[in-house]
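Private note to self, pasted from the team thread so I don't lose it. Backbone tokens:
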């Protein structure tokens, strides 16, 4: 049986480090603050909001909830974002997406200034990922993968890595992060021929295809580290599953993240750590 790369100890380590930084900032009368912007009452948004608020409270980060009705006008919504951008007491802005069509998702994500884009969704933040600079922040799920690799001392230098998926949320930024750690990266997608050939050559395999339990034993070999980013309910809605067929793959590979309890459990801690880092950067600048 492979080693389980659980997310809980990774999140705990991030949280402890945050508490130390928050204590230092509060001594300077700086209170790291996250503004959560929600349009409407979507159940998944409300669930994530509760989780983020709980995580923030546990490390001393304050939350400001900004809620708009679903029929909010463009003017009112974007004026609200602009005020948060200009508010020095707000260090991070998280806007739940998708938003209603009349607000335009692409315009929404780029309405946030990169230095407060703690979710890593703006073009500015993505540019920072590609240039390896502190322009904005890394997308949280991609950063969570790197945090797991770091916590478990899995060195990327000289390793072959395969990333299954090319989204701007995970796949493409993650490929850049792995290259920054000196891995040689192959990105596979829906037009890739013979995906299994690429995945079996990889030392580190990250599956973020968004297709539930679509990767089984035929894609892996002994000696690999597999990180499963996917999370979906099965057809009976009784079990959370990843993109990897865990029961098939785990007996073969050296190490694997579980679902649930793997990458997803680290993501919220990464988001909150970005708020703390934003507050620290603003303090350093002033």
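Design output:
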């Amino acid at each position: 049986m492979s080693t389980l790369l659980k997310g809980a100890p990774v999140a705990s380590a991030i949280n402890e480090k945050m508490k130390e930084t928050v204590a230092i900032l509060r001594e300077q009368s700086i209170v790291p603050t996250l503004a959560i912007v929600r349009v409407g009452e979507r159940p998944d948004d409300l669930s994530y909001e509760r989780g983020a608020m709980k995580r923030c409270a546990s490390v001393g980060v304050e939350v400001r909830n900004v809620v708009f009705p679903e029929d909010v006008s463009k003017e009112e919504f974007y004026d609200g974002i602009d005020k948060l951008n200009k508010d020095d007491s707000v260090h991070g802005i998280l806007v739940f997406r998708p938003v209603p069509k009349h607000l335009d998702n692409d315009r929404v994500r780029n309405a946030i200034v990169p230095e407060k884009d703690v979710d890593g969704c703006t073009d500015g933040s993505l540019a920072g990922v590609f240039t390896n600079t502190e322009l904005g922040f890394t997308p949280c799920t991609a950063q969570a993968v790197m945090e797991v690799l770091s916590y478990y001392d899995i060195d990327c230098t000289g390793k072959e890595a395969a990333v299954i998926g090319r989204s701007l949320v995970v796949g493409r930024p993650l490929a850049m992060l792995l290259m920054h750690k000196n891995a040689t990266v192959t990105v596979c997608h829906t037009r890739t021929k013979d995906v299994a050939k690429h995945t079996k050559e990889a030392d580190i395999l990250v599956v973020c295809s968004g297709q539930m339990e679509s990767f089984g034993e035929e894609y892996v070999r002994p000696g690999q580290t597999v990180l499963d980013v996917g999370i979906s309910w099965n057809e009976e809605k009784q079990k959370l599953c990843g993109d990897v067929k865990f029961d098939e793959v785990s007996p073969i590979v050296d190490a694997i993240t579980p679902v649930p309890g793997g990458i997803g459990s680290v993501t919220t801690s990464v988001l909150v750590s970005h708020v703390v880092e934003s507050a620290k950067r603003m303090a350093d600048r002033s």
